Amino acid sequence: MNLCIDIGNTRSKLAIFDQHGHLVKLLYREKASPKIIEPILEKYSIQHAIVSSVRKKNGKLKRFLKKALKCFIFLSTKTKLPIDIQYATPKTLGRDRIAAVVGSRSILGKKNILVIDAGTCLTYDFINKKGKYLGGSILPGLSMRFQALHQLTSKLPLIQRTALDQLNFIGNSTETSIQTGVQLGIIHETYGFIQHYHQHYPNLQVVLTGGDTPYFETHLKNEIFAVPNLVLIGLNQILNYNVQ
Known about the structure:
Order of helices and strands: EEEHEHEEHEEEHHEHEH
Largest sheet: 6 strands, mixed
Number of helices: 7
CATH class of the largest domain: Alpha Beta
Strand content: 15-25%
Number of strands: 11
Mean pLDDT: 92
CATH architecture of the largest domain: 2-Layer Sandwich
Distance between the termini: 14 Å
Oligomer: single chain
Radius of gyration: 19 Å
Helix content: 25-40%
């Protein structure tokens, strides 16, 4: 069994994969500590583990896993990858972005792939059919856009998203104007990115992942292939690539 841990800004995801690459168990925790992970290692007979983290302090966790397991990898710029990173500043490249493109290639094979990760931030990442990761774009996600309008102005209220089919294209109040601006704006923006990549890269495959996947999937269903746990799938592929 493999243990893949994705430590984000607000929570940690722990995924157990079997030897065939099937996701056996998915857990969500506020943080990934040795106290939480130790019983998981015993229950599932974990031999190998990989951690991807956006947090700086992971020393205790790394020491514990390195001592407890046959093979432990903390994803970094030194980790061997099954793809070619062409990013100009690899040290600043988010580990979740790397894992997502690796996961997409493992699922779709040697194709031009655009990965859209709809989470706290909205990211676009492109890997070509030769396995070269070229980069992409980083934008504010849905919730961040609502918060920015409220926090960076003196009068605009903090508005929550609503169902798009309940909105008119023209907002007739401050609340609905914000909702149409943020929600319709992000959909049109995503269509624009997809079309731009389609023009430059034939036979493009578009993969969607992240916490806001259900929202985007509903309104882009003819354009995308949704894989909710794409980052974890990619982490498992990277782990297996290093264990071989």
